[in-house]
Design a protein that fits this description.
heterodimer; A: 162 residues; 7-stranded antiparallel sheet; two-stranded antiparallel ribbon; B: alpha+beta; 5 strands; 18% strand
């Protein structure tokens, strides 16, 4: 359980930062994957890291919390109500690089473990600016170390289970 | 007092604002040529087919997502067909395949918005104006704006097509072993100028450069 601290009269949960060497995984829909003209997936668009209207932080999942078991991570994401299809991508970003990208643009990004019953590895990236497109592009290019398709993970898993 | 920098806006037969913003006059032969090309685009974009498409889209709000996606794909293809004479057949066929893939029910996320017609309008006009030999990869923003992305190694150009000829562009370009990143918002007729320092032919030509 996380200790509750009181600040300015509000009760606030204290969340742990994710180690800089670890990774967070962002689910990216097919429409926000970067593709070439022949539909080959090349990574993700900067829009994959854009906050929607009303969103206060970026939702991700801590890879190492699940021992990098992507099948478990997909299951946890689906329990949270995400629609992950075979054409969805999972963008793996290094936490240290995420923080570094933020620093270069004057944004003090905080990558915090905020477990929830459906996804115990849930991580929120806080203080992400809404309108800094260069920072979002840098996250998509520099912080993301690989993008893996859900279909590839599931087909590999079903093959190995047989 | 009317600003000299803002061209007067006109209303078309379909109640839309004049869809193409023209560059300022008096800048020489190049400006004349650009102006003529935009007028050509404008002439072909105002078609009865477009107005029919728009009505179908607004009616389909209560339909299932499969039906709405089907309608959206059909609408975008009809809009494209109105300017098909300016697109090479393989280019147009490839674009249709990309639209089918982008708007496929099996990969559709419930949080996605359908392609905004005004955004696709801007996309088509940008394509006709820039005339890239290489098709972009397509994406969609949370607001339903179409995204055109060209990628050559580490060189990335991403253009989000906003309504009314506006483009939000972000690029990463390797120049002298340094990766430069730039972002901005501009109008279609300004895109070649704002991209010129980054040698955009690396994205737009068909792999020769």
């Amino acid at each position: 359980m996380h200790p509750i601290t009181q600040k300015f009269g509000l009760l606030m949960a204290k969340y742990d930062p994710i180690p800089l060497a670890d990774h967070i995984i962002r689910a990216v829909s097919w429409t926000r994957l970067r593709k070439d003209e022949n539909e080959n997936v090349l990574g993700c668009l900067w829009q994959a890291f854009e906050l929607r209207d009303g969103e206060r932080y970026l939702s991700t999942t801590w890879r190492e919390h699940f021992n990098s078991d992507l099948v478990q991570i997909i299951a946890a994401m689906r329990r949270c109500g995400m629609k992950l299809t075979s054409k969805s991508g999972l963008a793996h970003a290094n936490v240290g690089k995420v923080v570094e990208c933020g620093n270069r643009f004057g944004a003090k990004l905080r990558v915090l473990h905020q477990p929830m019953p459906e996804n115990t590895g849930y991580v929120a990236v806080q203080n992400l600016p809404h309108e800094d497109h260069e920072l979002l592009e840098m996250l998509a290019v520099d912080a993301v170390v690989e993008t893996v398709m859900v279909g590839t993970i599931e087909s590999t898993n079903s093959t190995s289970a047989q | 007092m009317t600003s000299l920098a803002t061209p007067p806006r006109k209303i078309t037969a379909f109640g839309l604002e004049m869809p193409v913003l023209l560059p300022s006059r008096g800048a020489g032969a190049l400006a004349e040529e650009m102006s003529d090309r935009l007028k050509q685009v404008q002439k072909h974009m105002i078609t009865p087919a477009y107005s029919v498409t728009k009505r179908q889209t607004s009616k389909s709000i209560n339909f299932s997502i499969e039906e709405r996606l089907f309608d959206s794909r059909a609408s975008l293809k009809v809009m494209t067909a109105a300017v098909a004479m300016h697109l090479k057949r393989p280019w147009r066929d490839g674009l249709f395949r990309q639209l089918d893939s982008l708007l496929a029910p099996e990969s559709w996320d419930k949080d996605d918005k359908l392609v905004d017609v005004a955004s696709y309008y801007t996309f088509l006009r940008m394509i006709l104006y820039v005339q890239p030999a290489r098709r972009p990869g397509l994406g969609l923003s949370y607001n339903g704006n179409l995204i055109a992305a060209w990628t050559v190694d580490v060189n990335r150009l991403t253009v989000e097509c906003l309504p009314k000829d506006q483009l939000r562009w972000v690029l990463s370009r390797s120049i002298d072993d340094n990766l430069e990143r730039v972002a901005g918002v501009t109008f279609i007729h300004r895109l070649p100028d704002v991209l010129a320092p980054y040698h955009p032919e690396i994205w737009f030509t068909n792999g020769e450069v």
